[in-house]
Design a protein that fits this description.
This protein is mainly alpha-helical. The chain has 4 domains: 199 residues, MFS general substrate transporter like domains (Growth Hormone, Chain: A, Up-down Bundle), CATH 1.20.1250.20; 44 residues, GTP Cyclohydrolase I, Chain A, domain 1; 200 residues, Growth Hormone, Chain: A; 73 residues. 77% of the residues lie in helices and 1% in strands. The protein is built from 26 helices and 3 strands. Strands 2-1-3 form a 3-stranded antiparallel β-sheet. Helix 2 packs antiparallel against helix 6, helix 4 runs antiparallel to helix 24 and helix 5 runs antiparallel to helix 10. The longest helix has 30 residues. The radius of gyration is 25 Å and the shape is globular.
Length: 532
Amino acid sequence: MANKSTFTYKVAAIVALGGLLMGFDASVVSGVNKFVQIDFDLTDPQLGFSVSSLTLIAALAMMVSGPISDRFGRRIVLKACAVIFAISAIGSSLAPNFTLFLIFRMLGGIGVGASLILAPMYIAEIAPPKIRGTMVSFNQLNIVIGISLAFFTNYLILSYGDSDATWVETLGIGEHNWRWMLALETLPAVLYYFGLFGVPRSPRWLVMKGHDEEAIEVMSKFRSKEEALVDIEGVKKAIAADANKEKAKLGDLFKPAFKLVLLIGLVIGVLQQITGINSVFFYAPMIFEQTGGGTDAAFRQAIIVGLMNLVFTVLAMSLIDKLGRKLLLVVGVSGITVFMFVIAYSFNQATYRLDGDKLQELVVSLKSDDGKEPEIMLDASKLSGIVGKSFDNDVEYKNTLKELLTPKVAKVYESQLIGAAIGINSTMVLIGILGFIASFAISLGPVMWVLFSELFPLSIKAIAISLVGAVNSLVSFGIQFVFPWELSTIGSAPTFLIYGILALLGLIFIIMKVPETKGKSLEELEAILIKK
C-alpha cells in the first residue's frame, strides 16, 4: 500500500504542475507590464487589456474544458494545455508588435482556464476519499507557488540584465528582459507535457467510455483491488444516476427558494476580486514603483508578496476545518479593510517635490559606465520650471511630467522621477500590501471555493458554481483592465480607498448573512438556507 500511496502522490504532483503553470502564466506579466508599455507605446487601456484579456479567455475556457475533456479525456486535454502554455510563452516573448503579443497572451488564457478546471478534477477522480481534500489542495498550492516563482524569476532576469557578464550580453537579457521573463515559462511547460506521459487515463473517464476493465486496472494503481472494485462500482452508479437526472437550468437559480444562497455566492464571488487582489498580483512592481523605491526594489518587494501569499495559503489550509469558514472570512476581510485604508492613507500623505540636486544626480546615473547616453533621453532642462515646486498628489505630478517631457519619455523615467521627488512612508505601504495579501490568502482566496461547494444544494450545484465562477472571472477582468487607468487618472490613494470601502461593505454582509458551514452536513445546510 505504501507504493500505491507514493504513486498516487507522484501522479497528483505531476498533474498539479498545471496549477503552477497557471499561476506563473498569470503573474509573470507583473514584471512585463512596464517594459511592454514602453516598447509598444501602449495607452493605459491597452496595457490593462493586455493583462486582463488572459482572465477573460480563461473564463471562456473554463466553460468548455469540462465537456471537451469528457469527450477526449482529462490527460489528453492537459497535454494540450502544456503545449498551449509553451506556444503562448514563446510567441508572446518573440512578438514584434502589440497585436501579436496580445494574441499569444490570450492563447495562454486557454491553458489557464482549462488547467484550473481539469487538474483538480483529475486529482479528485484518482484520490482515495480519506486524502482527497489534501491532494486536491495540491493544485491550489501549486498556483500560489507559480505566482511566487514568477515574481522571483522576474527579479532574477532583471538582476542579470544589469550584469556585465558576457553570456548576459550575448543572450540579450538586459535589452530584452521582458521577453526572457515570458520565455522562461517554456521550460516548465515542456516538463509538464512529458511528465503527463507517466499519468494514467482517468478511471472515471474510462468508465464513461465503457472501458470498465481498464478503469479497474488504473484505479488499482492507487488503492487495493477490493477498494478499486468498490469505487468503480460507485462511479458507475453515479454516472447512471446523472444520466437519468434532469439537468438544472440557469433559470432555476432565480427561484425564491434559492434567493439567499445565490445572493451569498454572488457577493462572495464579487468580493473576492473587487477588493483588488489581482491588481496587486498582476501589477505589484508598478504599485511599489509608486513609492519611489525604484524598479529593482519594486521587483524585490514583489517576491516578498509571493512568499507571503504562499505562507498564509498553507496556514489557511490547516485552519479552515478547525476555525471554520465564517471566522476566517471575518478575520481576513477585516484585515483587507484595515490594510487597504493604511495603503490609501500612506499615499494620501505623500508629497512630490523635485530638487535640482536630485535631478542632476538622476541624469548622471542614467549614463552607462562607458559614458553613452540612454536610447531615450531625459532632457532635464524641460523640468527646470518645476524644480522646487511641491505637488500634493501623484496624478498632478505625473500629468505635469507628461506635459513637459511627452507621455512616452515620462513613462520611461516615471519610476526614477517619482523616486527623486516623493516623500512617503514606503515602509507603511509595504506593510499595508503584505498585510492585505496575508488577509486575503487566509480568507477569500481559499475559503470562497470551499464555501461554494457547501452552500448550493446538489440539484443546482453545478450550474450555480459555474455562474458565480463566471461572475468572479468577469469582475477580475474588469479590475485588471481599469487598474492602470485608475493609477493615472484618480491616483493611488483613491484607488486603494475604494478597495477598502468595498471590503468594509463586504465584511458587513459576511457578518449579517453568511452562515458558518463547518461541521454541518449538506442536508443541514440545505434545511437552513433553502426556503421550501
